[in-house]
Amino acid sequence: MSRRKQQLVTTTILIIIITIVLMAVVISDAKIINITNKISSKKALIVHCESLDDDLGALAVSSDGVYHWEFEDETFSRPVVFWCNLALEDGRLSFVAYTEGGAGYVVLGYDVNETGIYGPDMFDFQRTYDLLHPWKRIQLP
After folding, report:
1. Is residue 23 situated within a structural domain?
2. Partners of residue 35 on adjacent β-strands
3. pLDDT computed for residue 25 by the predictor
4. Do the beta carbons of residue 126 and residue 83 sit within 8 Å?
5. For this UniProt entry, which segments traverse the membrane (predicted)?
């Protein structure tokens, strides 16, 4: 093989490798989180979720309403973790809504009812849907 052809082959291989690396970075790894208010008493549910980098803000979610957000895992930074605080007039609870490296969910759905929050265990590869956290009742004066 001539020197010119060898340089062309080497250049082509380098371009292919760079293209593959760039595609791996650009391909979307979007995640979707939904927290649905299933409380039958038609009470508004206050939901506030955040990560170390993003504060999604607090929102009053009406009955059958959904607190929804989408995001992507960070390729070259610290792992993404979202935690949420939920509040009713007489109850509070906090939970981790997403941890990067869990069971590989793309869409995570949580239902909140009178007993607490139901959803998947992020490290349960059998994909069960159970009570994750009960309400912590507070005494009102």
Report:
1. no
2. 67, 110
3. 46
4. no
5. 7-27
Retrieve residue 92's tokens.
Answer: 């509070």
Between 121 and 48, where is the model more confident? 48
Domain total in the chain: 1
Return the structure tokens found at 20.
């593959």
A 10 A CB-CB count for 133 gives 17
HSE-CB at 88 with a 13 A cutoff on CA atoms is 24
| Closest listed residue to residue 69, CA positions, set 42, 97, 44, 96 | 97
CATH of the domain at 44: 2.60.40.10
Q: Which residues of 94-131 are buried (b: 16+ CB within 10 A; e: fewer)?
A: ebebbeeebeeeeebbbebbeebbbbbebeeeeeeeee
DSSP character at residue 128: -
Q: Is the pTM of this model over 0.70?
A: yes
What secondary structure does DSSP assign to 27-68, as a single string?
Answer: S--EEEEEEEE--TT---EEEEEE-SS-EEEEEEEPTT-EEE
Residues 55-113 have pLDDT tens digits of: 999 999 999 999 999 988 776 677 889 999 999 988 999 999 998 876 566 778 999 99
